[in-house]
Amino acid sequence: MRQSVVVGLSGGVDSFVTALLLKQQGYEVIGVHLQLWDDKGKPQLDSLCRDLGIELLRYDGQELFRRQVVDVFVQEYSEGRTPNPCALCNNTVKWSLLLQVADEMRVEKVATGHYVKILPLAGHWYVCKGEDAVKDQSYFLWGVKEKLLMRALTPLGDFTKVQVKKMAQDYGYADLAYQKESMGICFLEGRDYRDFIFHYSGRICKPVPGDIRDTDGHVIGQHTGLLNYTVGQKRGMPVIGNEPLYVKEICAGQNLIVADRKNGLFQHVLEIEQVNLIDRTDLELENIEVKVRGLGLNPAGNANVREIGESRLRIYLENPAWALAPGQPVALYCGNRLLGGGILSSGRI
Protein backbone atom coordinates (compact mmCIF):
# COMPACT_ATOMS: atom_id res chain seq x y z
CA MET A 1 0.00 0.00 0.00
CA ARG A 2 1.34 3.43 -0.93
CA GLN A 3 1.96 5.76 1.99
CA SER A 4 0.22 9.14 1.83
CA VAL A 5 1.68 12.54 2.67
CA VAL A 6 0.09 15.98 3.01
CA VAL A 7 2.33 18.57 1.29
CA GLY A 8 1.98 22.28 1.89
CA LEU A 9 1.85 23.99 -1.53
CA SER A 10 2.43 27.72 -1.85
CA GLY A 11 2.57 27.96 -5.63
CA GLY A 12 6.34 28.45 -5.67
CA VAL A 13 9.13 26.25 -6.99
CA ASP A 14 10.20 24.89 -3.58
CA SER A 15 6.89 23.33 -2.57
CA PHE A 16 6.27 22.13 -6.15
CA VAL A 17 9.60 20.26 -6.28
CA THR A 18 8.89 18.88 -2.80
CA ALA A 19 5.65 17.33 -4.10
CA LEU A 20 7.44 16.10 -7.22
CA LEU A 21 10.22 14.39 -5.25
CA LEU A 22 7.81 12.69 -2.85
CA LYS A 23 5.66 11.45 -5.71
CA GLN A 24 8.78 9.99 -7.33
CA GLN A 25 9.55 8.25 -4.02
CA GLY A 26 6.21 6.48 -4.23
CA TYR A 27 4.08 8.58 -1.91
CA GLU A 28 0.47 9.38 -2.62
CA VAL A 29 0.74 13.17 -2.46
CA ILE A 30 -2.14 15.33 -1.24
CA GLY A 31 -1.47 19.00 -1.90
CA VAL A 32 -2.76 21.51 0.63
CA HIS A 33 -2.71 25.23 0.01
CA LEU A 34 -3.04 27.17 3.26
CA GLN A 35 -4.84 30.43 2.60
CA LEU A 36 -3.32 32.60 5.31
CA TRP A 37 -3.58 36.07 3.83
CA ASP A 38 -5.29 37.59 0.80
CA ASP A 39 -3.52 35.45 -1.85
CA LYS A 40 -6.63 34.96 -4.02
CA GLY A 41 -6.20 31.18 -3.90
CA LYS A 42 -3.18 30.93 -6.26
CA PRO A 43 -5.12 29.64 -9.32
CA GLN A 44 -1.91 28.36 -10.99
CA LEU A 45 -1.83 25.61 -8.36
CA ASP A 46 -4.72 23.83 -10.04
CA SER A 47 -2.82 23.29 -13.28
CA LEU A 48 0.40 22.32 -11.46
CA CYS A 49 -1.42 19.69 -9.43
CA ARG A 50 -3.20 18.36 -12.51
CA ASP A 51 0.18 18.00 -14.21
CA LEU A 52 1.50 16.04 -11.24
CA GLY A 53 -1.68 14.01 -10.89
CA ILE A 54 -2.21 14.95 -7.27
CA GLU A 55 -5.22 16.11 -5.30
CA LEU A 56 -5.34 19.76 -4.26
CA LEU A 57 -7.17 21.02 -1.19
CA ARG A 58 -7.48 24.60 -0.02
CA TYR A 59 -7.65 25.29 3.68
CA ASP A 60 -8.71 28.63 5.16
CA GLY A 61 -6.33 29.53 7.96
CA GLN A 62 -6.75 33.30 7.76
CA GLU A 63 -8.35 33.77 11.17
CA LEU A 64 -5.67 31.75 12.95
CA PHE A 65 -2.93 33.55 11.01
CA ARG A 66 -4.37 36.94 11.85
CA ARG A 67 -4.69 36.06 15.54
CA GLN A 68 -1.37 34.24 16.03
CA VAL A 69 0.87 36.21 13.68
CA VAL A 70 -0.46 39.58 12.51
CA ASP A 71 -2.06 40.65 15.81
CA VAL A 72 1.06 39.56 17.72
CA PHE A 73 3.29 41.40 15.23
CA VAL A 74 1.37 44.64 15.77
CA GLN A 75 1.15 44.22 19.53
CA GLU A 76 4.87 43.44 19.91
CA TYR A 77 5.92 46.51 17.97
CA SER A 78 3.52 48.66 19.99
CA GLU A 79 5.34 47.43 23.11
CA GLY A 80 8.76 48.34 21.75
CA ARG A 81 9.76 44.77 20.87
CA THR A 82 10.96 43.32 17.55
CA PRO A 83 9.02 40.18 16.52
CA ASN A 84 9.84 37.73 13.74
CA PRO A 85 6.53 36.87 12.00
CA CYS A 86 8.06 34.04 9.91
CA ALA A 87 9.05 32.21 13.07
CA LEU A 88 5.63 32.92 14.59
CA CYS A 89 3.91 31.46 11.54
CA ASN A 90 6.00 28.30 11.47
CA ASN A 91 5.69 27.70 15.19
CA THR A 92 1.99 28.43 15.67
CA VAL A 93 0.21 28.25 12.31
CA LYS A 94 1.68 26.60 9.22
CA TRP A 95 2.88 23.27 10.58
CA SER A 96 -0.03 22.95 12.99
CA LEU A 97 -2.59 23.45 10.22
CA LEU A 98 -0.88 20.90 7.97
CA LEU A 99 -0.92 18.41 10.83
CA GLN A 100 -4.61 19.15 11.45
CA VAL A 101 -5.44 18.45 7.81
CA ALA A 102 -3.39 15.24 7.92
CA ASP A 103 -5.18 14.06 11.05
CA GLU A 104 -8.58 14.78 9.52
CA MET A 105 -7.59 12.68 6.48
CA ARG A 106 -5.91 10.00 8.62
CA VAL A 107 -2.57 10.62 6.93
CA GLU A 108 0.61 10.06 8.93
CA LYS A 109 3.12 12.30 7.13
CA VAL A 110 3.26 16.02 6.38
CA ALA A 111 5.84 17.79 4.22
CA THR A 112 7.00 21.30 3.37
CA GLY A 113 9.52 22.94 1.07
CA HIS A 114 11.83 24.11 3.86
CA TYR A 115 15.57 23.85 3.26
CA VAL A 116 16.21 21.84 6.43
CA LYS A 117 16.74 18.23 7.43
CA ILE A 118 14.75 16.43 10.11
CA LEU A 119 16.82 13.62 11.60
CA PRO A 120 16.63 11.17 14.51
CA LEU A 121 19.34 11.27 17.16
CA ALA A 122 19.57 9.62 20.59
CA GLY A 123 15.87 8.80 20.69
CA HIS A 124 14.69 12.25 19.57
CA TRP A 125 13.88 14.07 16.34
CA TYR A 126 15.69 17.30 15.50
CA VAL A 127 15.63 19.98 12.84
CA CYS A 128 19.10 20.20 11.29
CA LYS A 129 20.64 22.68 8.88
CA GLY A 130 20.13 21.92 5.19
CA GLU A 131 22.80 21.41 2.54
CA ASP A 132 22.31 24.94 1.22
CA ALA A 133 23.91 27.18 3.84
CA VAL A 134 22.48 30.32 2.20
CA LYS A 135 18.89 29.03 2.10
CA ASP A 136 18.96 27.18 5.43
CA GLN A 137 15.70 27.92 7.27
CA SER A 138 16.25 26.02 10.50
CA TYR A 139 16.36 29.24 12.56
CA PHE A 140 12.66 29.86 11.93
CA LEU A 141 11.69 26.40 13.22
CA TRP A 142 13.05 26.67 16.77
CA GLY A 143 9.53 26.39 18.21
CA VAL A 144 8.20 23.43 16.20
CA LYS A 145 7.35 20.61 18.62
CA GLU A 146 8.97 17.20 18.39
CA LYS A 147 5.61 15.43 18.06
CA LEU A 148 5.26 17.17 14.72
CA LEU A 149 8.87 16.63 13.63
CA MET A 150 8.36 12.89 14.04
CA ARG A 151 5.81 13.04 11.22
CA ALA A 152 7.48 15.61 8.98
CA LEU A 153 9.37 15.28 5.68
CA THR A 154 11.59 18.02 4.22
CA PRO A 155 13.24 16.56 1.11
CA LEU A 156 14.76 19.87 -0.01
CA GLY A 157 17.18 19.72 2.90
CA ASP A 158 19.36 17.48 0.77
CA PHE A 159 19.59 19.97 -2.11
CA THR A 160 20.67 23.51 -2.91
CA LYS A 161 18.33 26.12 -4.34
CA VAL A 162 20.23 25.93 -7.64
CA GLN A 163 19.60 22.17 -7.83
CA VAL A 164 15.92 22.62 -7.03
CA LYS A 165 15.47 25.18 -9.79
CA LYS A 166 17.33 22.87 -12.18
CA MET A 167 14.96 20.02 -11.34
CA ALA A 168 11.92 22.16 -12.07
CA GLN A 169 13.46 23.30 -15.34
CA ASP A 170 14.34 19.75 -16.37
CA TYR A 171 10.70 18.72 -15.90
CA GLY A 172 9.51 21.52 -18.14
CA TYR A 173 8.70 24.19 -15.54
CA ALA A 174 11.33 26.81 -16.36
CA ASP A 175 8.82 29.63 -15.81
CA LEU A 176 8.12 28.35 -12.32
CA ALA A 177 11.81 27.83 -11.60
CA TYR A 178 12.75 31.39 -12.38
CA GLN A 179 9.63 33.31 -11.44
CA LYS A 180 10.15 36.16 -9.01
CA GLU A 181 9.89 34.85 -5.48
CA SER A 182 8.20 36.69 -2.65
CA MET A 183 10.66 38.19 -0.21
CA GLY A 184 10.12 39.68 3.21
CA ILE A 185 6.98 39.54 5.33
CA CYS A 186 4.06 38.21 3.30
CA PHE A 187 1.23 40.24 4.81
CA LEU A 188 3.06 43.54 4.40
CA GLU A 189 2.83 43.03 0.63
CA GLY A 190 5.78 45.33 0.05
CA ARG A 191 4.57 48.04 2.41
CA ASP A 192 6.68 49.58 5.13
CA TYR A 193 5.87 47.83 8.40
CA ARG A 194 5.16 51.16 10.09
CA ASP A 195 2.58 52.09 7.49
CA PHE A 196 0.97 48.67 7.90
CA ILE A 197 0.76 49.02 11.68
CA PHE A 198 -0.63 52.55 11.42
CA HIS A 199 -3.53 51.37 9.27
CA TYR A 200 -4.09 47.80 10.41
CA SER A 201 -7.78 46.97 10.74
CA GLY A 202 -8.70 50.56 9.96
CA ARG A 203 -7.08 51.88 13.13
CA ILE A 204 -4.92 54.95 12.55
CA CYS A 205 -1.98 55.07 14.95
CA LYS A 206 -0.15 58.38 14.82
CA PRO A 207 3.46 58.49 16.02
CA VAL A 208 3.90 60.30 19.32
CA PRO A 209 7.19 62.15 19.84
CA GLY A 210 9.05 61.62 23.10
CA ASP A 211 12.37 61.85 24.91
CA ILE A 212 15.68 60.29 24.03
CA ARG A 213 17.73 59.86 27.20
CA ASP A 214 21.25 58.72 27.93
CA THR A 215 21.97 55.85 30.30
CA ASP A 216 22.08 58.29 33.23
CA GLY A 217 18.54 59.45 32.49
CA HIS A 218 19.42 62.85 31.02
CA VAL A 219 17.26 64.08 28.13
CA ILE A 220 19.53 64.47 25.08
CA GLY A 221 17.02 64.68 22.23
CA GLN A 222 13.57 63.90 20.91
CA HIS A 223 12.38 60.89 18.92
CA THR A 224 9.70 61.05 16.22
CA GLY A 225 7.69 58.02 17.41
CA LEU A 226 8.87 54.66 18.74
CA LEU A 227 7.89 52.73 15.60
CA ASN A 228 10.57 54.65 13.70
CA TYR A 229 13.35 53.09 15.79
CA THR A 230 14.87 49.72 16.53
CA VAL A 231 17.65 48.55 18.82
CA GLY A 232 21.03 49.20 17.18
CA GLN A 233 19.77 52.04 14.98
CA LYS A 234 22.03 55.06 14.46
CA ARG A 235 19.92 57.02 11.97
CA GLY A 236 17.98 59.85 13.64
CA MET A 237 19.90 59.56 16.91
CA PRO A 238 21.88 62.33 18.65
CA VAL A 239 25.63 62.79 18.29
CA ILE A 240 27.54 63.62 21.47
CA GLY A 241 31.08 64.95 21.20
CA ASN A 242 31.39 63.84 17.57
CA GLU A 243 30.51 60.29 18.64
CA PRO A 244 27.23 58.86 17.28
CA LEU A 245 24.74 57.27 19.65
CA TYR A 246 22.63 54.18 19.02
CA VAL A 247 19.27 52.95 20.23
CA LYS A 248 19.99 50.78 23.25
CA GLU A 249 16.49 50.31 24.63
CA ILE A 250 12.91 51.19 23.66
CA CYS A 251 10.64 51.86 26.65
CA ALA A 252 7.12 51.84 25.23
CA GLY A 253 5.39 52.40 28.57
CA GLN A 254 7.27 55.68 29.05
CA ASN A 255 7.44 56.57 25.35
CA LEU A 256 11.19 57.04 25.55
CA ILE A 257 14.36 55.74 23.95
CA VAL A 258 17.59 55.04 25.83
CA ALA A 259 20.72 55.86 23.81
CA ASP A 260 24.30 54.74 24.26
CA ARG A 261 27.62 54.59 22.45
CA LYS A 262 28.21 51.61 20.21
CA ASN A 263 30.18 49.61 22.76
CA GLY A 264 27.35 50.02 25.25
CA LEU A 265 25.14 47.71 23.18
CA PHE A 266 27.24 44.60 23.75
CA GLN A 267 25.79 41.87 26.01
CA HIS A 268 27.43 38.83 27.58
CA VAL A 269 24.24 37.50 29.18
CA LEU A 270 20.80 36.96 27.62
CA GLU A 271 17.50 35.71 28.96
CA ILE A 272 14.90 34.04 26.76
CA GLU A 273 11.29 33.07 27.41
CA GLN A 274 8.64 30.87 25.72
CA VAL A 275 11.35 28.23 25.45
CA ASN A 276 11.03 25.11 23.32
CA LEU A 277 13.63 22.34 23.68
CA ILE A 278 13.67 18.91 22.08
CA ASP A 279 15.65 17.40 24.99
CA ARG A 280 16.39 19.46 28.10
CA THR A 281 19.53 17.42 28.79
CA ASP A 282 21.01 19.05 25.67
CA LEU A 283 21.62 22.12 27.85
CA GLU A 284 24.53 20.20 29.36
CA LEU A 285 26.37 20.15 26.02
CA GLU A 286 29.61 22.13 25.92
CA ASN A 287 29.47 23.37 22.33
CA ILE A 288 26.14 25.23 22.19
CA GLU A 289 26.02 28.14 19.76
CA VAL A 290 23.54 31.02 19.68
CA LYS A 291 21.96 32.53 16.58
CA VAL A 292 19.77 35.63 16.31
CA ARG A 293 18.67 37.18 13.01
CA GLY A 294 18.24 40.92 12.81
CA LEU A 295 20.16 44.17 12.85
CA GLY A 296 22.49 43.00 15.62
CA LEU A 297 25.55 40.79 15.44
CA ASN A 298 25.52 37.11 16.42
CA PRO A 299 27.92 36.18 19.21
CA ALA A 300 30.96 34.13 18.20
CA GLY A 301 31.96 31.05 20.16
CA ASN A 302 29.99 28.85 22.53
CA ALA A 303 27.46 29.54 25.25
CA ASN A 304 26.61 28.18 28.67
CA VAL A 305 22.85 27.80 29.15
CA ARG A 306 20.95 27.45 32.42
CA GLU A 307 17.26 27.06 33.24
CA ILE A 308 15.98 29.83 35.51
CA GLY A 309 12.31 28.95 35.65
CA GLU A 310 9.51 27.39 33.68
CA SER A 311 10.10 28.08 29.97
CA ARG A 312 12.95 30.49 30.70
CA LEU A 313 16.69 30.22 30.08
CA ARG A 314 19.71 32.37 30.93
CA ILE A 315 22.50 32.27 28.35
CA TYR A 316 26.10 33.16 29.21
CA LEU A 317 28.02 34.01 26.04
CA GLU A 318 31.70 33.29 25.48
CA ASN A 319 31.84 36.44 23.34
CA PRO A 320 29.31 39.27 23.48
CA ALA A 321 26.40 39.82 21.12
CA TRP A 322 25.63 43.33 19.86
CA ALA A 323 22.32 45.14 19.55
CA LEU A 324 19.96 42.26 20.16
CA ALA A 325 16.35 43.38 20.42
CA PRO A 326 13.72 42.01 22.83
CA GLY A 327 11.14 39.97 20.94
CA GLN A 328 13.65 38.43 18.54
CA PRO A 329 13.90 34.62 18.39
CA VAL A 330 17.08 33.13 19.84
CA ALA A 331 17.99 29.73 18.40
CA LEU A 332 20.33 27.25 20.08
CA TYR A 333 22.50 24.93 17.99
CA CYS A 334 24.98 22.14 18.52
CA GLY A 335 26.80 21.92 15.21
CA ASN A 336 24.13 21.58 12.51
CA ARG A 337 21.51 20.43 15.01
CA LEU A 338 18.84 22.85 16.23
CA LEU A 339 18.30 22.20 19.93
CA GLY A 340 15.44 24.66 20.31
CA GLY A 341 15.18 28.29 21.31
CA GLY A 342 13.00 31.03 22.69
CA ILE A 343 12.20 34.75 22.58
CA LEU A 344 14.64 37.35 23.88
CA SER A 345 13.20 38.88 27.03
CA SER A 346 12.81 42.59 27.64
CA GLY A 347 15.39 44.22 29.86
CA ARG A 348 19.14 43.80 29.93
CA ILE A 349 21.04 41.54 32.34
Structure description:
By secondary structure, the chain is of the alpha/beta class. It has three domains: 4-181, HUPs (Rossmann fold, 3-Layer(aba) Sandwich), CATH 3.40.50; 209-260, SH3 type barrels (Roll), CATH 2.30.30; 266-344, Elongation Factor Tu (Ef-tu), domain 3 (Beta Barrel). 24% of the residues lie in helices and 31% in strands. The chain is built from eight helices and 19 strands. It has a six-stranded antiparallel beta sheet with strand order 15-18-19-14-17-16, with no helix packed on it. The longest helix has 20 residues, at 85-104. The termini are far apart. The relative contact order is 0.12. The model has no long low-confidence stretch (mean pLDDT 92).
Could you give a quick summary of the protein structure above?
The protein is α/β, with parallel strands linked by helices and 349 residues long. The chain has helices at 13-24, 44-52, 62-78, 85-104, 146-149, 161-170, 174-177, 193-199, and strands at 4-8, 28-35, 55-60, 109-111, 116-121, 124-129, 152-153, 210-213, 219-223, 239-240, 243-244, 246-251, 256-260, 266-277, 288-291, 303-309, 312-322, 329-334, 337-344.
Secondary structure layout plus pairing:
Layout: E1 4-8, H1 13-24, E2 28-35, H2 44-52, E3 55-60, H3 62-78, H4 85-104, E4 109-111, E5 116-121, E6 124-129, H5 146-149, E7 152-153, H6 161-170, H7 174-177, H8 193-199, E8 210-213, E9 219-223, E10 239-240, E11 243-244, E12 246-251, E13 256-260, E14 266-277, E15 288-291, E16 303-309, E17 312-322, E18 329-334, E19 337-344
Parallel strand pairs: 1-2, 1-4, 2-3, 4-7, 8-13
Antiparallel strand pairs: 5-6, 8-9, 10-11, 12-13, 14-17, 14-19, 15-18, 16-17, 18-19
